[in-house]
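anyone seen this seq b4? input:
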Amino acid sequence: MFNISLAPIKYRNVYTSKGGPIKHLEYLKREIMFGSQNIGYEAYAYLDDSTSSSIGTTYNLYGNADGQGSDANKITACFKAISEALERQAFKETSLSSQANKYGFNIENSTSGLAAFPGITKYTAKESANHEAIERWAITEWWLGNLSIEEVKYKPESGIHCFQIITPWHPKIVVVLLYRTDASDEAVGVDNNNSQLDLNRTSFGFAAGNDLSRACKRAEIELMRNHFILKTKLNSTNSVSTNLSHTNNDLSVYERRLLYFSESAGDGFLTFKEQIKKSENPHNQNHAFPKLLIDAEIVGEWSKYTTVWRCLYQHQEYKHLENSSDFFYF
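predicted toks r here
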C-alpha cells in the first residue's frame, strides 16, 4: 500500500523552539552504502534534555543521538532521524508509565518492534514495526538453532556475504543477515591491559523487507553504520583510553556484543561462522508462526507529529535479553 509522508507538514513544529520535543539536528555527508556512488547523508536527532534523560543507556560506540536516519536526500535523512527520535520518546515515556505492560515493555523493555512514520494512514508505521519485530525474532531464533539459513548473492564485488533466514513468513517477508570483513590499516593495536587487539573487524547488518532487494538495501545501510563505527572508533587515538573491549562492562551489552562478534580472529566471529554452517540443518526447525503478543499504536504527545506502532512476537527463549556478550543480538 502506497502511503504519502506528511513529514514536511507534521514536523514543522517539532522543535523545542516551537514547543516540540526535538532539541536539534545534525547531519554529515558520507557513504551510506558501499561504493563511491552511494554518497548520502547520515542525520542525527536529539530530544530535549527532560525527555532524553528520562531513561536510557549511555553509548560509547553508538553515540547518544535519540534518532538516526540515512538517505541520499538530506531532508529525507533528517525526517527519518526525527521519526526515530519520536519513536524513542514513545518508548522512554511509555515504558515508565502505567501503560508499560499494555505494550509489552514488561516482556522486552527495548525499542525492538517499534517504528514511526508520519503518513496519511497508519499503515506504513504498522508494516515497519512488523518487519522490525520479525527481523528481531528471526535473528534470535536462528542463533538458538531453530531456523535455517541459506546464502544468496548480493553485491559480492563489495565483499558482502548475504544470507536469508528461512522464517514462517518466507518468501512473503524476507529476513537477511549481511556481513563484511575489513582489514584495518593497522592489523594490531594495544588495549588498556597492553595486550594485542586485533583490528581486522567484521561488520554486520540485518533487516526484513517485502522482497530480497529491499531487505538487503536496508541491511547494508545498517552494516555500513557498524562499519563506520568500528573504523572510526577503533582506529582513533582515543580507543586505548576508552578501553573498547567486549570485556569492558562500562559499555552497553549491545556494544560489547558488536565488539565480541566483530573481531575477525576472535571467538565471537568463529562461533558465528560455525552457526552459519550448523544452521543448514537446525536441531529444532520450527516453521510455525510465533504468537503475536503486541500489535498496537502507542499513543502520546508524539502522536501529533507521527504514528508510533509496536509489534512483538513471542520467543521460545529470552536469552537475548541476558547481559552476556556472546549472544548474537545487537
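DSSP finds eight helices and twelve strands in the chain. Residues 95 and 109 are 7 Å apart (CA to CA). kinda curious what u guys think
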